[in-house]
Amino acid sequence: MTTAPTAPVLTVEDLTVVYEVDEPVTAVRGAALTLHRGEILGLAGESGCGKTTLAYAVNRLHRPPARIASGRITFHDRSGEDVDLLALDDRELRAFRWDKLSMVFQGAMNALNPVGTVRAQLADTLRAHRPRMGRKEIRERSEDVLRRVGVDPRRLGSYPHELSGGMRQRVMIAMAMLLEPQIMIMDEPTTALDVVVQRDILREIVRLRDELDFAVVFITHDLPLLLEIADRIAVMLEGEIVELDTADNLYRNAEHPYTKRLLGSFPSLSGERGAFIRTGVDQTAAHPTEERA
Ligand SMILES: Nc1ncnc2c1ncn2[C@@H]1O[C@H](COP(=O)(O)OP(=O)(O)OP(=O)(O)O)[C@@H](O)[C@H]1O
């Protein structure tokens, strides 16, 4: 399903990121893209093409030796204000992250603090960003986000080691949604999980996006998956975005030889795109997934 473009929420212009090592590596070269409100933008390409570097740079999470050599990154806030992300100081960045833009990393489920309960970790984030929130509101919000990602709120009292991998990853997605950000960047959010759990979580993400209208940058090397869940797809090759189009156009009329090659490398790509997850979303929309991961 392709939606008509809405207003932009993020604009990346001419972004170049270099790893300043002995022989400098230009991991992202002149990347440009516009993310629209509420859309799922897939970022595809084989390992090492620069997807993660691009995502980290957009959130200013890159660390030396990575350096943004050029470019502009602008967040277009719902309030109408434009924020120049490369000009934010550390304090402004901390306030910005999670609140306006959140990220679910590859293997994020291992990023939960092992000695804190789920309740404590959600509450910490809420207290840091919403200092005026009372205890009751914190409890209600925490229960609500867990329910939304298909985790029983009774799990608030659990420690990470008491949860399955799928449940931990759902908790990380709940954490990323906690402050109702306008953008979520997801870098291979389900790769470490088994296929059934992956499908459940992906359905959940698409359903939540439909409900809450945040935009998603979804990074994966799994192009068939993107063809199912993404509205538009950017294909990266050796640091450059070589093609960016709607998922439908890309599937039917890919122009760049690399995109064609990539499509051809997945023998499973036959029939209508979106048959599984999209259909699943419609079927499960009225009955959010029970806890089963
Ligand atoms: N710390 C580093 N120092 C030097 N080069 C690096 C460093 N981190 C990444 N690179 C290089 O930058 C390029 C892009 O890497 P990146 O991790 O962004 O790719 P990716 O598409 O996300 O890959 P994957 O799917 O495997 O995560 C690669 O050539 C990689 O070798």
Automatic annotation (TrEMBL):
It is a peripheral membrane protein. Keywords: ATP-binding, Cell inner membrane, Cell membrane, Membrane, Nucleotide-binding, Translocase, Transport. It is found in: Cell membrane. SMART domains: AAA. It holds the Pfam family oligo_HPY. GO terms for cellular component: plasma membrane. GO terms for molecular function: ATP binding; ATP hydrolysis activity. Its main location: membrane. Residues 10-263 form the ABC transporter domain. One of its GO terms (biological process) is peptide transport. Belongs to the ABC transporter superfamily. This is ABC transporter ATP-binding protein.
